Amino acid sequence: TSLASTGYCIGDKEGNIVTYGKIPTNAKDFENEDFRMNYVCDEVDKLIKEYNIKEMVVEDQFQSVNAKTILCLRKLIGGIMRVAYNNNIQITYYYPTQWRKKLGINQGKAKDKKLMAYNYLIEHSISIGEFKTTGKNKNDDMVDATCIYLAHIKK
């Protein structure tokens, strides 16, 4: 979850992926950070209604090298929690270490773990295109969202 690109994956309880994607934002398109966060939350609300979502799984962030970044992410998670609450949806939270451990991809540095998550999807015949961690076409947020969903249904 981030303001630049919030990934999502929608699937059923049997492990079938319905759709995945990202909610991209650009700071220059919004008056301030709060408007940007509200836009992301509005998009999450639209997905909930469009796909009749009954349960959400959210990555919980607990650390960052940048205090401003962690504050921003915590505010965004709070906004998403509020959207879920308003739609009577239960949320399950996973720390990155938790979902990666469930999928067996919790070794190495953060950059290696991102590539391991992408490779996990490829190994399970889930393709989201060429793996990109930067730029306009970055898709690592979609990779994370899809892996979090897969880890959740793995229980």
Summarize, please.
The protein is of the alpha+beta class and 155 residues long. A hairpin with a 5-residue loop joins strand 1 and strand 2.
List keywords for this structure.
two-stranded antiparallel ribbon, 155 residues, 4 strands, alpha+beta, 49% helix, 5 helices, two-stranded parallel sheet
Question: What can you see in these coordinates?
Answer:
- The protein is of the alpha+beta class and 155 residues long.
- 49% of the residues lie in helices and 16% in strands.
- The protein has helices spanning 33-51, 67-86, 96-103, 110-123, 140-154; strands at residues 5-11, 17-24, 55-59, 90-94.
- A two-stranded antiparallel sheet has the order 1-2.
- Helix 1 (33-51) packs parallel to helix 2 and helix 3 crosses helix 5.
- The radius of gyration is 15 Å and the shape is globular.
- The model has no long low-confidence stretch (mean pLDDT 89).
Poorly predicted regions: none
Number of helices: 5
Largest β sheet strand count, sense and barrel closure: 2 strands, antiparallel
Q: Provide the β-strand percentage band.
A: 15-25%
Q: Helix content range of the residues, please?
A: 40-55%
Summing up helix and strand content along with how strands pair, one would put the structural category as alpha+beta
**Order of strands in the sheet with most strands:** 1-2
Overall spatial form = globular
Please, what is the oligomeric state? single chain
What is the N-to-C order of secondary-structure elements (H for helix, E for strand)?
EEHEHEHHH
Radius of gyration: 15 Å
- End-to-end distance: 22 Å
Would you count the extended β strands for me? 4
Average of pLDDT:
89
